[in-house]
Each structure stands twice: as C-alpha cells, then as structure tokens.
Write a structure and sequence with these properties.
The complex is a heterodimer of chains A (about 300) and B (about 230). Chain A is built from 11 helices and 10 strands. Chain A is an alpha/beta fold and about 300 residues long. Chain A has one domain: TIM Barrel (Alpha-Beta Barrel). Chain B has about 230 residues and is an all-alpha fold. Chain B has a domain at about 15-160. Helices cover about 65% and strands about 0% of the residues of chain B. Chain B is built from 10 helices and no strands. Chain B has helices spanning about 20-30, 35-50, 55-80, 85-110, 120-135, 140-145, 155-165, 175, 180-195, 205-215. In chain B, helix 1 crosses helix 3 (about 55-80) and helix 3 runs antiparallel to helix 4. The radius of gyration of chain B is 18 Å and the shape is globular. The termini of chain B are far apart. Classes of the chains: A alpha/beta (about 300), B mainly alpha (about 230).
C-alpha cells in the first residue's frame, strides 16, 4: 500500500476527472494537483484530506447502510483521498470498512490507519492482528495508541513491530484537547512518526505547544474533529461566508473549516467523517485549489470568532 | 485523582448516530415478518388474561412476559443492537436471564395469598395495558415517518420493559423489586442514550418506565381477606 505515490495520484486524478464529467457540480472544482504533505520521517507524500470513521461507519450488519457508506468511501477515493482512520473503539466500523474495501477493490490506493485501544499492554499484537483481519489487509500503514491508553507498553511493542516491518508508521492520539501535557512529554521523548489531535477553528489549543513541537521534532500531524463533531456547521452554516473567502481558496463552509486546518504548516492531514456522499464531495474540495496564507488564516479565525 | 474523566460527556461514549439506531427497528421488522402477528396476539392475550384474573391467568401473563424478555433480549439487543453498541449485548443477556427467572417465578410462586380485583377494575387494567402497548410503538413511527419502524412489545426493548413493569404489579411488593432492578437500570440507560442521540421523544417510553417502576416499589396489591 502507498508505495508508488505518483502512480496512485495519477489514477486518483483520472478518477476525479472521470467523476467530474458525470457530476456537473464537480465541473467547477478547482483544477490542479491535490494538496499533499510529506510525512517528515520518510518524505512520503500524503493527501491533506483523509477520512475519519468515528460514528459514521459503525452501522452493524445493516446492508443498506453498508452500501451507502461504501459509496461515501468510493467518492473519497475517486476525489483523491487515501488515508482512512479507524479504531477498535468504533464498534463495527472496522468490519464495515473491510466489506466496503472488498466491494471497491481499492486496497492498493489505501493508506490504512487505525489504533490500539486496550488497557491490556500485552495485547498490542493481538489487537493489530484482529484489526488487520477485519480490514482484510496484510499490515497497517499507521498504528496509533488510542488516547494514550497503556501507551508505554503499546508503544514499545509498536516500535518492535515497525522494526520487524509489521507496520510502517507508529503514533499516538488524543482528542477534545485532553492530556496535552502528557502528550507533549511523549512527543518530546519518544520516537514517533505521527500524532493525532483535535484542532479546528474553535479548538486551537494545539497551536500553542503541540503543533510547533511536531514541526520541531519532525512528526506528522493528523487532525481529528475538524468540524468539532459537526458543531461548526450547526453554529455557522446559517451565516454567510465572508466575501473574501474565495481569495483564501474557500467556496463553502466545509472548505473554509478544512483549509484553515491544513494550511497550518505543521498539519499533515485532516480527517473529517461523514455519512453522505455530497458532504464527502464538499470535504474533498478542500484537497484542491489555493490555501490561505498566514494573514488570511488570522482573518478566518477572527471572522468566526466575531460571528 | 485523575480528573481527565470529568471532561467527558455522554456523547463521547455514543459510537453511532440516530439514523443507524432507528434503522434497527426497520430492519428487525423486515427480517421477522410476519412474526409481528405473534407479538400482537401476545399483547391481546395478556390484556385478556389481566382482565380475567385468577391464579392461572396470572401465571400465564408472567410466562408471556417472560417470553417477551427472552425474545427482545436475544433478538433486538444481542443480534441487532449489540454490534453497534456493546452494552446492548450485556443488556441482552440480562434480559434473557430475567426471562428465565420470571419463568421460574411464574410457575412456582404461591399466588393464593394475593386477592383478586373486582371485574370492572380488572377489565380496565387489561384494556389499558393493551391500549398502552398499541400506542407506544407509534413513537418510533412518528420519529422516523416509517411504519416499518414500529417498536413492538416482545420485539423491541423499551416497549417490552414498559409493559413488563406494569405486569410486575401482579407480584407482592416484597418480591416485586427483584424484577424491577433490570427495568430501572435499562430505563436509565435508554433515557441517557436516546437523549444523547437527539431523539428525546423516544425517551418518553423509558421515562414512563422509570416513573412506573419507582411507583411499583410503593404500591401493593390488596391482601386476600381471611375467609373466616
């Protein structure tokens, strides 16, 4: 997986172009290459918009919803996405992802990211094995310690797994701004490829210490809750976009929220989650076109704060 | 003390959305069709048995309620709800256990010590119970706008537990609490889930169950008069 970026990007762009011919609204999508970011520890490029699965892919055995989520995933890949993030915590999401990947036959385009989520520090490999079985893949591109649960033991095993080639990258996660102090200490002392944290236009604590530290230490950053669990849309969707949004590369609120995040120089990838194809299409719009510069980013934050 | 837990809210523990939850009702009704007819017959039978009164009728009511615990626990909770919400699986097994215990109690309990109500009162209770079990399923229909989402007694947990708690009034108070523990815990869990899901209308059923269960702890059926 993800060994030949140029080829995959080319195929993704071809697919996106093909889709745009079928969906008139996509004709207006910005032309050009998808926005990519290097993983500092390897230089490998990642598309700046990924996909989260929290709540959205936990649909149990509901075939109607599995088919619908498969369409969401198909749209994600067609529009140039590669990184999909999940966790054993998310109920049936991993099984549903496995079934969707079977249907779409797109594992060669997938950057598979999941987490270790168990208080049993000796169960790292067992949970990795179980997750691989559910996804139907031979190894994960990225394994992360979920919410720092038993992180010392899991990280030690993950380091060994990475050395043995059982996983390509390792990392840790937090969300909702929790345990940033612990998170910072681990980032300072442990060799990590990735960290995952919450960062959005309203939750900006990560700007103070964690994002600068990630740059300093050469750690890739995945951003979860980019829409604050949907709250950003609930609060601001009824408001008009500022007239200068187009100058910042934003045609709708989804792009406004996401481009603010991925334009931060420390951020590698944001992972919005959605259950709807049209929302996925909007989200993936943030993968193309111009990004706001530093002055525009400040203006975006001020505009939202003033609403 | 780790105060990190204080930053969590109920929504942080909810791993699914209202669409997925409400689809459970549609799915089970599609999958078991036409067995809803059996559930409807059970509702009518329990209503008639409550109206008739008598020892055998009481035993039969409790046996039918035991079947409802077993069916909704093993079916809806373990098979449908459990895969998206792990605690539902645990509740499912608790429902099965409750059904088994109720079966034993229904068959072995010495009913002679409990007096029968007047016929008019019995028929009111029977009709009221059937009316409640007929109307309660309409809440999920109203929420979804889909007739296939009807939450039926014996098939889905909230309506089953509400109906079961009402029937627990047949037991003397000193043993009734034994069969009210699970309804109380379930109703709290369900109210919290439905509220967090953003479907507070559906929380009316487990909310009513909570009120009824608390009341049932203080209401006693009249003792039999001494025939001498």
């Amino acid at each position: 997986m993800f060994n030949e970026l140029g080829r995959r990007q080319f195929l993704a762009m071809l697919a996106a172009a093909g889709l745009s011919l079928r969906i008139p609204s996509l004709m207006a999508a910005p032309e050009g290459h998808p926005i990519v970011r290097p993983i500092p520890s390897s230089g490998e490029q990642l598309p700046a918009i990924g996909m989260g699965t929290w709540r959205t892919f936990n649909v149990g055995g509901d075939q109607y919803l599995i088919d619908q989520r498969t369409q969401v995933l198909e749209t994600f890949f067609n529009l140039g996405g590669t990184l999909v993030d999940c966790s054993p915590m998310y109920g049936s999401a991993a099984e549903v992802m496995g079934e969707a990947l079977d249907t779409l036959n797109v594992r060669d385009r997938l950057f598979a990211a999941t987490k270790i989520w168990t208080g049993d520090g000796g169960a790292t490999r067992q949970q990795d094995r179980e997750s691989r079985r559910k996804w139907g893949i031979e190894r994960f591109d990225l394994q992360q310690v979920h919410n720092l649960v038993a992180w010392q033991e899991h990280l030690e095993t993950l380091r060994q797994m990475k050395a043995d080639g059982e996983v390509r990258y390792i990392g840790i996660t937090t969300s909702h701004g929790r345990r940033h102090g612990d998170f910072e200490r681990i980032m300072e002392t442990e060799p990590l490829d990735f960290v995952q944290l919450t960062y959005n236009l309203l939750d900006r604590q990560a700007e103070d210490r964690l994002l600068p530290l990630a740059r300093e230490r050469g750690i890739a950053v995945i951003v979860n809750r980019p829409f604050q669990g949907g709250n950003l849309f609930r609060r601001f969707q009824s408001e008009a976009l500022p007239p200068w949004a187009g100058e910042a590369g934003c045609r709708n609120w989804a792009e406004f929220f996401l481009k603010y995040i991925v334009s931060h120089p420390a951020v590698t990838c944001a992972i919005p989650a959605t259950t709807r194809v049209e929302h996925m299409t909007e989200n993936m719009g943030a993968l193309y076109g111009a990004l706001p510069d530093e002055q525009q980013r400040r203006r975006m934050a001020d505009y939202v704060a003033g609403l | 003390m780790d105060t990190n837990w204080l930053s969590y809210s109920l929504s942080d523990f909810l791993m699914f959305g209202p669409e997925v939850f409400l689809r459970l009702f549609v799915r089970i009704n599609q999958d078991i069709w036409p067995w809803q007819g059996v559930a409807a017959v059970m509702v009518v039978a329990i209503g008639v048995l409550l109206a008739r009164g008598g020892i055998m009728a009481r035993r039969a009511v409790l046996l039918l309620v035991a079947v409802a615990w077993l069916w909704s626990g093993a079916g809806f909770l373990i098979h449908y709800y459990g895969p998206i919400n792990l605690p539902a699986t645990w509740f499912g097994w608790a429902f099965v256990l409750q059904g088994a215990l109720l079966t034993v109690a229904a068959l072995l309990w010495p009913w002679d010590a409990v007096a029968s109500r007047p016929a008019l009162s019995r028929w009111s209770i029977g009709l009221g119970w059937v009316a409640l079990m007929g109307l309660a399923p309409l809440l999920t229909v109203a929420q979804t706008g889909n007739g296939q989402a009807a939450a039926l007694f014996a098939i889905t947990p909230d309506v089953t537990v509400l109906g079961a708690v009402a029937c627990m009034l047949l037991f003397p108070r000193r043993v009734r609490w034994l069969f009210l523990l699970l309804p109380l815990v379930w109703a709290l869990f369900s109210v919290a889930t439905l509220w967090t899901l953003g479907t507070p209308v559906l929380a009316v059923i487990p909310g009513a169950t909570l009120v009824l269960a608390v009341m049932a702890c203080f209401v006693s059926p009249r003792r039999a008069r001494n025939p001498d």
